[in-house]
Fold this protein.
Amino acid sequence: MAFKSKPRIEPYTHAAAGWGALKYVAINLIKERVPGRDYAMLFRQNKADGFDCPGCAWPDREHASTFEFCENGVKAVAAESTGKRVTAAFLAQHTVTSLMAQTDYELEQHGRLTEPVIYDGLSDTYRPISWQDAFALIGTRLRALPDPNQAAFYTSGRASNEAAFLYQLFARMTGTNNFPDCSNMCHEATSRGMPHTVGVGKGTVTLDDFETCDTILLFGQNPATNHPRMLAELRDCARRGATLVSINPLRERGLERFTSPQSPVEMLTLSDTRICSVFVRPTLGGDYALIKGVAKRVLELDDEALASGGARVLDTAFIAEHTHGFDAFAADLRAESWTLIEQESGVPREEIEGLAAIYARGQRVICTWGMGLTQHKHSVQTIQMLTNLMMLRGNIGREGAGLCPVRGHSNVQGNRTVGIEEQPTGAFLDKLGAAFRFTPPREHGYDVVESIEAMLRGDVKIFVALGGNFAAATPDTLRTWDALRACNLTVHIATKLNRSHLVHGKEALILPTLGRTEIDLQDGVPQGVTVEDSVSKVHISFGMNTPASPDLMSETAIIAGLAHATLGSDTVDWRWYAQDYARIRDKIAEVVDGFEHYNARVAVPGGFHLYVPARERQWHTSSGKAEFLVNPLSPDTPIAQARARHGERVMTLMTTRSHDQYNTTIYALDDRYRGVFGQRRVVFIHRADLEMLGLRDGEWVDMTTVWHDDIERRADGFLLVAYDIPRGCVAAYYPETNPLVPLDSVADLCNTPTSKSIPVLLHRSSATMTASL
Ligand SMILES: Nc1nc2c(c(=O)[nH]1)N[C@H]1C(S)=C(S)[C@@H](COP(=O)(O)OP(=O)(O)OC[C@H]3O[C@@H](n4cnc5c(=O)[nH]c(N)nc54)[C@H](O)[C@@H]3O)O[C@H]1N2
Ligand SMILES: Nc1nc2c(c(=O)[nH]1)N[C@H]1C(S)=C(S)[C@@H](COP(=O)(O)OP(=O)(O)OC[C@H]3O[C@@H](n4cnc5c(=O)[nH]c(N)nc54)[C@H](O)[C@@H]3O)O[C@H]1N2
Ligand SMILES: [Mo]
């Protein structure tokens, strides 16, 4: 544990990245005992002939000739290339009960899984099982289900297109569309909201647009931690003179100043670049009202221009030619009250007007957004309001402008594209059925929240996970654990030991897999896998590292093995596909629009962009135009309801990521840009709220959720940290706070857990606490 910082709170005063990042990289390489010969491999990530970084979905510059340095990319690769191993001997010595007592950080430290194992109830340990026996057992159990919808197939967003396509084919051939996946908890509001407005659930920009934009509005995102390579892009924009605005309750340090580790001059002269020049700080969940206010002001500015004979502020040509519903939208904006907008956004009218002025001045505006917009009750409406705003000035489908949802997992977007979708379209199913000569199930399946509810009801009995950490990533932890434990069988295809392997069904298996950084040989031939980034670019990735164990199988081969054992190979010759992934790509080309000549196009270095109709100003909506959508602004939110019952003591909690974690994987215990070291159980709160609650900075508190049911939801033992955060809002890290998120606290229209706005009460902790994990 020599690499653990002493628990302390110490505000960060430097620019983001820079030497601090390099120091952390060095620590990570040593801590993970990455074999020396593999250091060079780290520098081949995101190069044309290397592997796609498993860190995040931010795109790469084509043919990047220099290593795109990214601290968190290195952490992700180092974590996968670790020298530490979870062996059969380790698992024999550690009961599941004893492992349950360890933190997520400690579980991560045990290293890579090495061989397939099955839970043995008598000894309460995992024991080795052969691959063939594991497949046979799972196949027998799946075949024995009276209804195929009693199985759910989870996907985390690291799976390749090839693995994800084969997985959805396998599950659909068993007869179900139950595909809970990490995007249900992530960018679902984007994927569900945008098709109604612009006809596609994906971003409309490419990296080239960042070269010519003059304004970027960054909503609810912390790129210095979560998408560090994006910062380099933002730095270039700022240097060119573009105006960058952060819209975020927190003034994230990483969005203030940045020292590029790519720039020797900046590194040696300790200089940096200012990134955002303006910080607008709404209350949690206040963006919908804020964006509506900005749109209202844009309309007012246009009225003023009309009256004074000045240039129009609205792009009237775009609105006339490309959109539908403008009049009703404008009437709704004019009728909206400024008082309500100010109250619900938490932003004073002058600041909203200031933001509108920046937006209206921009000739080429890009809007980016992350989890700060998507994990709220009104997230779909918020994203639709954002597209409305962009349409007012024709900022979609032209150079230097557009919508840029910033995805999380490195292939989460690709997974959905190739069929990980619980609500598939009829057209997709028709093509899939025709390509593989079967009748796919039509009934929509369960998403994440619905799967948990179905397990609790006893309607789902087998849970299979292609990666991820379902038990920790999902809301309402104790109920989710009850749900998983009620299953007859849980199966995890995974690289590392995690909580989900310990919260298991009556029968349970862990199937260890190759990571993306590792050489994947099938029939002696190295296989590449393909992924799609945040700007819909598809490219191929080849592993370069020796596999962590000779007993690992690739995800694709595991899925083929499971499918063969369950369905036989008369209709689909599963193992033939797994022998050469190009065969799977040929089938994807047949089934999924936009993948024509797939193998030839990914053979070109850098890959290819998928067609995004809105980018070409083609609108695949019901009206054939981009739609202005009218949604009301209501003060009747779950937070307001909780305050009506418990008064102003109710705080709105956001659950967020620290710098040293990757979702539920805890690499280390620091969050250096926010000044937290050696600990994770902290809660950030405004000083005036501390005073109002009669609490002090440095005291320990327990948190409970205020919800309409009688279920007690609590998370105990958090250190209060006085912080620059809006009044009434508090922030703490996930997954520790997931016990507080009610299962039915979800976004309208997309069922995403509202993990950035939970009504909570803070209570002085009864136990004497010391800083711990
Ligand atoms: N190192 C690292 N990289 C990652 C991940 C990781 O865990 N670690 N996770 C990956 C994944 S799956 C994802 S989805 C992305 C997540 O990346 P982000 O989208 O940056 O997600 P969060 O860390 O949850 O941070 C959300 C940001 O939104 C702000 N915010 C919270 N509520 C609101 C609000 O109501 N309004 C506004 N305007 N802002 C708000 C928070 O202050 C914070 O800055 O990162 C990906 N990359
Ligand atoms: N409260 C709260 N909850 C949240 C969020 C939040 O902001 N707040 N964010 C949500 C978001 S945005 C997301 S995306 C989800 C994330 O949910 P998940 O994707 O389920 O979680 P991860 O922590 O990314 O999964 C990590 C595990 O994946 C496995 N793994 C890693 N690499 C590979 C691989 O290459 N192959 C396979 N098969 N397995 C691999 C390892 O065993 C590792 O332990 O969490 C969501 N939950
Ligand atoms: Mo995510």
